[in-house]
Design brief:
This protein is α/β, with parallel strands linked by helices. It is 41% helix and 20% strand. It has a single domain (2-245), classed as NAD(P)-binding Rossmann-like Domain (Rossmann fold). The protein has a six-stranded parallel sheet with strand order 2-1-3-4-5-9, sandwiched between helices. The protein is globular. The chain starts with a strand and ends with a helix. The model has no long low-confidence stretch (mean pLDDT 95).
Length: 246
């Protein structure tokens, strides 16, 4: 099967590309360096010609509401339009568990993406997943202020990006399934503790300081609503196992 991957070099996308190739599929990575730009639609139709599915795991660079909504609206519309012109039969998108009603920040962008996908005429599969184990690494790098790291308070049920990618590839193989069962991690974790354990594993003396940040976006993260419900499927790789695998 010929599978195009939008965001093939990202946290999940690189695993999607690897797993799909290992399962015998032809992978077409969509990127600006390869001549495709999902924001402007440049190069999309020609790159998608002959593809049987598109996996959209693009990631906005901003967590602010307006730029996130603008980004996901543009990229989703452009991908869907290009897929229709190229004759692609399956659109697979990744979103976030628990964001219903959270019209704030990055989550507002993902909700806008979901609405476009579900309202389109394209056959689709939509997978919601919880935050990735890899988020702790992002926080450690970006939140560092000298010997401390300012980490937002968060109650999560993180999942390995590789398990999310595997589920996306299996969704491609199964064919359009609409809204799929949510995928969460195996255990509840506090973000600050995850960052501390990662730093310890790397021999990094940084000390995470957890803050309760204001606003609906951050309230949702620390409320536990983003952990998903009991009906969700659960990944198998714990955060400790992910640390060991690194």
């Amino acid at each position: 099967m010929r599978i195009a991957v939008a965001g093939a070099t990202g946290t999940v996308g690189r695993h999607v590309a690897r797993i799909a190739a290992e399962r015998g599929h032809e992978v077409v990575p969509l990127s600006r360096s390869n001549g495709q730009d999902a924001v402007t639609s440049v190069g999309l139709v020609s790159a998608l010609t002959g593809a049987e599915a598109v996996v959209d795991v693009l990631n906005a660079s901003s967590i602010l509401k307006q730029p996130a909504v603008a980004y996901f609206t543009a990229t989703t519309r452009n991908l869907l339009d290009a897929e229709a012109k190229a004759g692609v039969a399956h659109h697979v998108a990744l979103s976030i568990v628990g964001i219903d009603g959270v019209e704030a920040g990055y989550y507002a962008g993902k909700l806008a993406q979901e609405r476009l996908v579900t309202a389109s005429t394209a056959p689709f599969s939509l997978l919601r997943a919880t935050q990735f184990h890899e988020f702790a690494d992002l926080m450690l790098r970006r939140a560092r202020r000298g010997r401390i790291a300012i980490v937002p308070a968060g109650l999560l049920r993180p999942v390995a990006a590789s398990e999310v990618a595997d589920r996306l590839v299996r969704a491609v193989e199964a064919g359009p399934g609409g809204r799929l069962r949510d995928l969460t991690g195996p255990r509840d974790e506090r973000l600050g503790e995850m960052v501390q354990r990662l730093a310890t594993a790397e021999g990094d003396p940084v000390r995470p300081v957890e803050l309760r940040l204001p606003g609906a976006y951050w309230r949702s993260m620390r409320s536990g609503v983003l952990r998903g419900g009991p009906e969700a499927d659960r990944g198998a790789i714990t955060f400790e196992e992910w640390l060991a695998l690194r």
